[in-house]
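Allow me, if you will, to draw on your knowledge of protein folds for a short while. I am sending you one protein, given as its amino acid sequence and as whole-number tokens for its backbone shapes. Kindly check, if you would, that the fold set down in the tokens agrees with what the sequence suggests. The record follows directly beneath this note:
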Amino acid sequence: MRKDSKITGLEFRLQVHRGDGAVRVARLPRPLLIAVAALLPTCVVLVVAAVSLAAQYRGVRAELAAAEAGYQGSRYLYDQLNDELAQVRSLNDRLQVVADNRPPSINSQFFGIGGSSSHPRVKRAPLARRLDDLNRAAGVTAAEVGRQKQGFVELTRLLENRQEEMAAHPSIWPVRGWIASPFGRRVDPYTHRWKLHEGVDIAGRFGTPVVASADGAVASVDRDPAGYGRFVLLNHGATVETLYGHLAQVIVQPGAAVRRGDVIAYMGSSGRSTGPHVHYEVRVAGVHHDPLDYMLD
């Protein structure tokens, strides 16, 4: 077999001579050859560029993945800091209650610094914008941390100067258990009507020790079958009183001095009660306050 090629004025001719004498001819027009010759370098350049761009694209994707991972790590740390700061602020507010004998201010309770967001628009925001937002939020958090630290310094100084007075302020749980009914308006379990619940009900095991939540004196030990059942009223000086109701047994006498943590009674279900629990009240100048604001431990 023999191959011959030949370029004429208008075409490229390729002849293939076979051993049996047959000849096969392939013709390519000259303009097509010129076009192929002209486009070949361009194709080579495009292929090289495509390979280069693919490599760059993979590199950019790797960098973006690393940046996204870094952002998510920073976001996680920021959310943790935010949660811890919220707990610190809550404790600060509760310490203010104990120190100043007043409920937390509305501004302090409801001032927020945000948190993590799962809104789709936030998730789809460009990474650069999310990083900027995170940096701004971190700045706000840092400023709030500074304010909280300063508040703790001032509060610590105040508490150090008022140790004896603070010992007479309710600040611990009077009994171990769980909150069965919080402070505030509720449906009375007996009348089925809305009524202000003037304390908190802490449920637990029958006979669980009940302790004084602050230093003071026993103002009253009595029994109210239609209400608190067996109860103890403690006076903590000034205008602060605490009441412990539905007791099974009382082990203190009127006039006795008590210290914070002293056992004064045992949990029961006396009076109007649906099960073992302690009804605990905090009164300041005759006004009922939410005991949870005074239960710091």
